[in-house]
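step 4 of 6: structure.
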Amino acid sequence: MNAILTIARKEYQLALRSVTSYIVFVLFLVISGAAFATTLFKINLAELRGIYSIIHLLFIFFIPAITMGSIAKERSSGTIELLSTLPIRLSQVVWGKILCAFLQVLTLLAFCLIYFGIVMVLGENIDYGAVILGILGLAFAALAYISIGVFASSLPSNQVLAFVLALVISGFFYVIRFLLALAPLSLVRYLQFFSFDYHLSGFMKGVLDIRDLLFFVAVTLIFAFLAEFNLQSKNMMQER
Amino acid sequence: MIEIQNLSRHFGALKAVDEISFSVSSGTITGFLGPNGAGKTTTMRMMVGYLQPSAGSILLDGKSIFADPIATSTKIGYLPELNPLYDEMFTQEILRYIADLRKMPATLFAQRLEYVVEKCGLQDVLTQRVGTLSKGYRQRVGLAMAILHDPEILILDEPTSGLDPNQILEIRELIRTLGTQKTVLLSSHIMQEVQALCDRVLIINKGKIIVDDEIGKLSSYFKDHQILHLELEAEDADFGEFMEYHPDLQIISQTQEGDNFKMQIKMPADLDIKYDLARFIAENGWLIVSLYTQEKSLEEIFYNLTKEGGQLPKPAFEEKDLEDAEELPSAVDTAEDEGEEEL
């Protein structure tokens, strides 16, 4: 079996045995569920756009929590020494970790399909395109955030630090949208290019623009590459 | 066959490994000996490709190990010093994981699993979580992981640390069996282990190799003299006359407490004076309480070589070296004093 799949499978199995991932899962579902229920019962609105933007916000906190241990833990426990002496490439380690975290996020999103079901039952004139593309967009955004998280996890051997770093980097991509109002007009169109929300908005409207897709793929690739590069350079210049 | 040429590794200003060269041929067990922080682990880490050398080269069958790291790692089995394992996994699972990452076919894995489980004595802990295992069992799991793919070269960083005496014997036996067909390099700071297992020994201290020789020759390096301990029940024992007959001898210490007389004599290793001495004592009517010669243990050799100021031992005794050695700060310990004379 491919090394990436082997690593991802093992990581996913271990995640299912760890209490931490259950806490993260439950918290995520409780918060997103509460937000969904509020719009549904209080405002009497059966729609998904609200919950999608809340899930996006939750990603900023929960994806770093999922990825913080991915490489930092291998480093702090020394098992990275084991991995580096096996006939696998460091890039395979990085992608294995990304794939595992992606599977975890997909599991989370699968639970969120309940909201979709509820809206289908209660709502009228549902724009299925927007609903399905919205989920797809969130999945791609999650992939990019995961890549950032894994990169952050490759920097320190301390998990908490990895979490904070991932939070700061992902937060930057998230917060840009709110900073646009303060930026000079001539810069806005360049700055907004980096905003995840800007690229997600197309998906939410049910429009699939290949440029948005490519943006998320590019962010994922860049951070995965940085993580690999970082691991390799650590390997070469390891200081005691 | 591994060849190390002028290998160096610096950590900042610290020279962990300083221009060492040696080679390990197949079918031999080589012991890598040195005190903590001597550079054993750093060297081994470089040999498995985990650390990049600052300078020098590591050749495996004539090819640099960094030319094709993937091919290299299929040939090498490595047991890291701290033996990192995934604590949440079960023993069988972790072996399976390693086999999968090494792309072992299922049938081969089944065979090898049976072999390593039997050889490393893992039958009872296969379904136990690695995190709950005792240190000895962890070490065995680590060893099982290292030999799982039947590597040509085994690099074991302190393989018997944390094992109980029975386990040590078993693991040594295993290493000995493996050593007949494979290239084994093991590190240790336990002399007896190296003595019991290895064909060759490399002693490293402060990043430099100070001894590289066959294990049998090592002790002959140092057996240029032996110490004779003598305890008598005698009043006013005087060996002046005896010493005149044997100019090679040298009295190191002598004490007289009432009836009890103790003496230590330094003499050349090939000289046997016990009979002469016993006869001399009998003629004087003294009573021997104990009489024995003490050879230098490997431990002592190791200690002398690796402590402050240790140098490459010279089989031939030179007056000049003795003077040099005496200028060094000497400790109260008699063993250390002997060491200075050794140089």
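step 5 of 6: annotate
 - Residues 90-122 of chain A form the longest helix (33 residues).
 - The interface with chain B takes residues 1, 3, 6-7, 10, 14, 17-18, 77-79, 81-89, 235-240 of chain A (CB under 8 Å).
step 6 of 6: archive
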